[in-house]
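Task: fold both queries, return tokens.
Query 1:
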Amino acid sequence: MKIAITILLSTFLLLYVSSPPFQAHAVSHKHPPKPEAPLAADYVLALGSADRFMHAWQIGDIEHGIVQLSDGLRRSQDAKKVEQFFLNAKDRAYEIGRGRGQAGRYTFPVVLVGTEGGQLTRRPSELIVLETGKNDWVIDKLP
């Protein structure tokens, strides 16, 4: 009889300890991750503008790149500096990360990737994209 009670008690204890509520409480007190906020519809347009601008930089298309700059940025930057940004478009690429901001203004982290002296280089920066009206977007900060 003692053996049966011991086996029964051991089985009950084993089942209790291995039950999901006990395990969840014993293993972790982590909070579930916060759901990401839904993106605004204009985020897609801003991201597209950032991508088109960076593609112009990648292929050295100064004409299409400058057209995408905001008036304020064009006035505040030295024309030679802007031109230099687009020159030497050989063996370079870019990465655009998830943007942040709100409707009408987004900041995108970018990484400019290239080669110097046979070595791969990565230069992190950011791009600011502004809406100018009627779904038109411009670049307001060079990376």
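Query 1 returned. Query 2:
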Amino acid sequence: MELSNRETWALIHGIIVGTVFILAFAGGLAGLWSLRWELVTAEGIRERLRRLQVGTWGMAAISWIAVMTGTYIVYPWYRATPPEGTTDLSDYPRSLLLSDPGTDLWHKFGMEWKEHIAFVVPILATAVAFIVTYYGPRLADRPLVRYTAMAAFTLAFAAAGIASVFGALITKVAPIL
């Protein structure tokens, strides 16, 4: 099997970066949840906190990489405008979706989500990383701050998950070849 340059970048953007994002989320959420005095000692808090800081900053970085590769590498191929008079729109995914009333909602809602809402993901992930770094071991004493960080983390994950599903389904209907 051979992948084109565009397919390779779509794979990097969606599958590789997305998988790392999911793993970072799972580790970060578990780390935030278990950062409680009743579960671990002071030494355990410090040890978990180091991992949590690396994990949350890693998730923030990987989410920025996903959004930037999607926005500045993959998306321009998606939105390319076909030359005047083109009837075969298979090389122009956006135009292909918009040309059919049965698929135009894939662009009007799915790609709008990916274009705009997806930018919330790295912002939320960065905010969580900042909270973890700023509060440090005090997170164990402040459950409300910890729960807020977990909620922001989960919102980032949910928004990314929805964007991922839209990306996969849109690519199925109108692939970037």
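Both queries returned. Flag for query 2: The mean pLDDT is 90.
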